[in-house]
Automatic annotation (TrEMBL):
The gene is engB. The keyword Membrane does not apply. Residues 22-195 form the EngB-type G domain. Keywords: Cell cycle, Cell division, GTP-binding, Magnesium, Metal-binding, Nucleotide-binding, Septation. Gene3D superfamilies: P-loop containing nucleotide triphosphate hydrolases. This is Probable GTP-binding protein EngB. The lineage of its organism: Bacteria, Bacillati, Bacillota, Bacilli, Bacillales. Belongs to the TRAFAC class TrmE-Era-EngA-EngB-Septin-like GTPase superfamily. EngB GTPase family.
Length: 209
């Protein structure tokens, strides 16, 4: 996708704060410090729009980024960070569950996994959660530049086996440093956007008839 316009819109914590323009939404979920902000910056070709931090747990809301006035990237709070209080973890969980179970414009969750490490229990729980709600998911194994290319298949296999990865889901190997996987990931999202636009057009035709 050629990026012509990107805007940070809002940090939302409640449904009444979510944008109401019904653009397709793609949420990014992953454990703290997995590189979600870096991935967003690479996807939109902006170095600092999504703020990266060496301090895990910094993102505590749903951060909305509007791209080309056509789609939203929604950055979730990172999960699994021990120093976040139990109350905060519960609040994050409730906020994310509400979003996942009720947000109609959500088209897919990009589940971000560090390819260097086997998925954590929280990663597996998140994946199972997405399957429970029937939400399309693309597993994005990032930080691919940190290990030799020859080791990619081995590490991808470990990730997929630990998650119980379904063949119907998508997977993209990614590097925020080199841009590996950027075009492929946009193509996945473009496909979902096209499907939603076709469904909307069909619904409109039926209502007119």
């Amino acid at each position: 996708m050629k990026i012509s316009n990107v805007e940070f819109v809002i940090s939302a914590v409640r449904p009444n704060q979510y944008p109401d323009d019904a653009l397709p939404e793609f949420a990014l979920a992953g454990r703290s410090n997995v590189g979600k902000s870096s991935l967003i910056n690479r996807m939109i070709n902006r170095k600092g729009l999504a703020r990266t931090s060496s301090q895990p747990g910094k993102t505590q809301q749903l951060n909305y980024y509007r791209v080309n006035d056509r789609v939203y990237l929604v950055d979730f709070p990172g999960y699994g960070y021990a120093k976040v209080s139990k109350v905060q973890r519960q609040q994050f969980g409730e906020m994310i569950e509400t979003y996942l179970s009720e947000r109609e414009p959500l088209k897919m969750v990009l589940h971000i996994i560090d390819i260097r490490h086997a998925p954590s229990k929280d990663d597996v729980l998140m994946y199972d959660w997405l399957k429970h709600y029937g939400i399309p998911v693309c597993v994005v194994t990032t930080k691919a530049d940190k290990i030799p290319k020859s080791q990619w298949p081995k590490h991808v296999k470990i990730v997929k086996e630990a998650l119980g990865f379904r063949p119907t889901d998508r997977h993209v190997l990614f590097s925020s440093e080199t841009g590996l996987g950027r075009d492929e990931l946009w193509a996945v999202m473009e496909g979902m956007i096209a499907e939603s636009e076709e469904e909307a057009a069909e619904t409109e035709e039926v209502s007119i008839e």
